Amino acid sequence: MRCKWLFLILILVMALSLLVPGCAEKQEKHIIFATGAWTGDWLTIYPIKILLEEELGYTTEIAETSTPMAWTAIGTGSADLWSNAWLPNQEDLQAEYADTTVSLGVIYGGGPQDPCLQFWAIPTYTSEEYGITSVTDLENPEFVEMFDVDGDGIGDVLGCDASWKCAQINDQMIIDYGFEGLYEQKYGSEAMMTVAIEGSLKKGEPVLFYFYTPHPVFVKYPIGESVTILEDPLGSWGELATIIKAANKEWVEANPEAAELIRQVKMTQDDIAWSMAEIEARGDDVETLTAIAREWMAEHQSEIDSWLAAVK
Fold first, then answer.
1. Per the structure, how many domains does the chain have?
2. Angle between helices 256-264 and 42-56 (to 10 degrees)
3. By residue range, what is the domain housing residue 143?
4. Separation CA 234–CA 232 (nearest Å)
5. Mean pLDDT in runs of 10 for the chain (312 residues)?
């Protein structure tokens, strides 16, 4: 009798386990994307999202994070993939979570064939009129006054989001070039700075700003023709930026097929700039972002076929 009851209990336990949603299976077939609060993130996310859903049967979600939070998220396991991680800017964050994260390879940038640049720049008309070609030229008191946007007697560098690594580098440049008391960085979101920069360019006004490629602003105002990058003798920005796909190590180990697919995914900074221009014109709701991703995928079907062939 006792054996009979044990057998029945075992059958009941097995039956209940089938009725409970497949937690282990769902975890293995689920991915959470981190974001850096930048329009350029979306094309690095949505094609991967679509491929994992439609080809490998994953469920997906996108967490609202910022650049430092994205590394914390994948480092602690509250997110699985940060597909637009900039190096060397974020090397300190990568090092902080070295034990719990892993790179799944470059997604764009990383060399002279696809150089992602960071720099201080001015309008070409200002460069030509005043002979400003280098950051060192900015020490001239006349130029300090010219780039004083708010009239407080200190020249202004239109910078970036205070939480981004570029904000720290901009502040360090001011110190390294001996510009303390002469210049200060104005912090703001990418959208805010883009509006301010484009406004000055449209009006033909002088403006000193930090920026980077890829960005659609340089489709409207090409580097060289409309915008002059200032020489940086101190090499403040280091090597050319390499943008990687950083992932939670445990998730990668538990999802080898999906991780291998993500390793295959590559694009160019021109692709990112195109997507940002499309988003600016069409919006950033889920349906639009999905449509933009599908348009890009249709133009790169042979590449996508090769990615899928590598994991099937």
1. 2
2. 140
3. 118-229
4. 6
5. 45 46 57 93 98 98 92 98 93 96 95 84 98 98 97 97 91 98 96 95 98 90 96 89 96 98 96 94 97 98 96 85
- Determine, yes or no, domain membership for 140: yes
Helix (H, G, I), strand (E, B) or coil at 242: strand
Report the C-alpha gap between 309 and 48 in whole angstroms: 15
Q: Which of 166, 198, 229 is the last residue of a domain?
A: 229
Query: pTM for this structure?
Result: 0.78
For residue 253, which of 97, 105, 100 has the smallest C-alpha distance? 100
* CATH number, domain with residue 37: 3.40.190.10
The structure tokens listed for 116 are: 């992602």
CA distance 305 to 299: 12
CATH number for the domain harbouring residue 191:
3.40.190.100
277 burial (CB, 10 Å; 0-12 / 13-18 / 19+) is middle
Taking a C-beta distance cutoff of 8 angstroms, is the pair 69, 111 a contact?
no
